[in-house]
């Protein structure tokens, strides 16, 4: 099977969880013997083509007028995706399935679906409605409209959790038989490699006798880092040895750093910014607790990463997180947005390290059992095969339409006249 994927981000260019999820899925399908190619955004200094774990990755050129705003930049990206896909088509590589990820590549997906008559599969990783707890301005409304349009244009829609299934059905009125739930996954082996000298590595982040509480993710409102900061004084009042590491980039970084000092806990909260995978793995290994206090989380792949790294886990009870983490079984959950509830659960882990390790061990076992990328790849391929069969039937049926119907003859006469004018 030949599958073309379109995505706005792909490693090493990663902003959130989408890029890693697309990379893991594409590489998994390629390992199962299929021809997978990805077209994605370019970045300064990138190679236009490269092989990554069996996947041919094409990065679009950046030669276009400076966009005036965010939406212009999205349109330029889609123009470039269409151009590169058409080049592949003209060079003789014709895909069987076009798989697009989120609204940022919806325009390219729709154009290529209609121009090549190939099935369009869409994965919706999150919705604008969910990210903002409703629609509050024209930009959000426009993005939400594009998401609705993508779900309409797609032959089939994949989402990552039962929570997202209900959200897409409710917000975009997509029928149940057009949506499938396929979770994201994780490669546990990717979280085993750490810095050789963890004791020395820890000195860059915390004192030797401090207990690390670790967060990593995009620093935006929906990730709930405000709630985490509000819990810090409550935790420190009962466990002064705690040290909070908040890793990641995002528009809220400066605000959060300033807020920590305003609260008088700046010396106990460290914002290292972006960290590489080796540092992330090492901090997971050192952490007494990994915390993800999201206000909105369609799936929560970071929870799987913490589980794979065997870090005791505390998460908010929202979205996909509450489907992954079961309170008192493989982690602890707290009431989203409630700093007292979060502090209580962090303290429960810090004060009972044996209990925390038991939860982490169960979580590690479940990662291997439930969230294997191999199984996820097979589920995705099954949907692709069904779409190919449906598309073949459609093409066969339309090819048998009689050519002597009056309305078709009228269309042909119109085309002949138009050609003569040109």
Main sheet, how many strands, which sense, barrel?
8 strands, mixed
Low-confidence stretches: none
Q: How would you sum up the global shape?
A: globular
CATH second-level architecture of the largest domain: 3-Layer(aba) Sandwich
Strand content: 15-25%
**Number of strand elements:** 14
**Class inferred from helices and paired strands:** alpha/beta
CATH class of the largest domain: Alpha Beta
- CATH homologous superfamily grouping of the largest domain: Glycogen Phosphorylase B
How are the strands of the largest sheet arranged?
3-4-2-1-5-6-7-8
Give the number of domains: 2
The span between the termini is 40 Å
Based on CA atoms alone, the radius of gyration comes out at 24 Å
Structure description:
Helix content is 48%, strand content 15%. With 422 residues, the chain is an alpha/beta fold. It has two domains: 2-185 and 374-397, 3-Layer(aba) Sandwich (Rossmann fold), CATH 3.40.50.2000; 188-370, Rossmann fold. It has an eight-stranded mixed β-sheet, sandwiched between helices. Strands 11-10-9-12-13-14 form a six-stranded parallel β-sheet, with helices on both faces. The longest helix is centred in the C-terminal third of the chain and has 27 residues, at 373-399. The mean pLDDT is 91.
